[in-house]
DNA sequence: GCCAACGTTGGC
DNA sequence: GCCAACGTTGGC
């Protein structure tokens, strides 16, 4: 069992959208490191925090879990689409997504609040210049955040 | 909208 | 394989 933090811009796809849909193909990842996490390291039932980024109140807003292992992201082959990648070979697709299932909403644990906890200094999203939209969390980080979310 | 910090691209 | 130019991310 692994733990993840996955960013999405709420104007693109929010925790409310996921609650409505039940699950979502985590589309549009076009970064090799993030892709490799999905392709090589994610397992069914891995848990992830849903993080709202690039918005007024960035932070953790919910929990979800992996419900389908990595498979080719169909948008990479859709000509004209924002996520179209003409260099991706259909016989050897470059980009994948996993399916994520809604688990629950949480209170907002804002980026500002996250920064106030010395225990979370090691969080990948707090490291200088880190822009990865998918990052792993240690079990300690996961548990610590869950406790904060419960209060 | 700004811009720092990265990742990617492509000429050489 | 170097590296300058360009594109993207994401907090502010």
How would you describe this structure in keywords?
DNA-binding; 151 residues; 23% helix; six-stranded mixed beta sheet; 4 helices; single chain; alpha+beta; 32% strand; ph1033 like fold; 6 strands
Spatial strand sequence of the major β-sheet:
2-5-4-3-1-6
Instruction: Tell me the number of structural domains.
Output: 1
Terminal-residue CA separation: 25 Å
Strand content: 25-35%
Largest sheet data = 6 strands, mixed
CATH structural class: Alpha Beta
**What is the mean predicted local confidence, pLDDT?**
95
- Overall shape: it is globular
Along the chain, the helix and strand elements come as: EHEHEEEHEH
How many helix segments?
4
What is the architecture at the second tier of CATH? Roll
Radius of gyration: 15 Å
- Per DSSP E runs of 2 or more residues, the count of β-strands stands at 6
- Share of helical residues: 10-25%
Report low-confidence residues grouped into runs of 5 or more: none
Indicate the structural class: alpha+beta
CATH topology: ph1033 like fold
CATH superfamily: ph1033 like domains
């Amino acid at each position: 069992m692994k733990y993840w933090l996955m960013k999405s811009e709420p104007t693109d796809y929010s925790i409310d959208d996921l609650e409505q849909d039940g699950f979502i193909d985590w589309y549009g990842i076009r970064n090799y490191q993030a892709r490799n996490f999905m392709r090589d390291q994610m397992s069914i039932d891995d848990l992830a925090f849903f993080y709202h980024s690039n918005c007024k109140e960035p932070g953790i807003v919910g929990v979800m879990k992996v419900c389908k292992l990595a498979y080719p992201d169909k948008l990479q082959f859709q000509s004209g689409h924002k996520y179209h990648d003409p260099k991706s070979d259909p016989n050897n697709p470059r980009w994948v997504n996993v399916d994520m299932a809604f688990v629950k909403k949480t209170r907002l644990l804002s980026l500002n609040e996250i920064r106030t906890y010395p225990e979370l200094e090691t969080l990948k999203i707090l490291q200088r210049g880190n822009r990865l939209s998918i990052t792993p969390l240690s079990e300690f980080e996961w548990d610590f955040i869950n406790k904060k979310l419960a209060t």
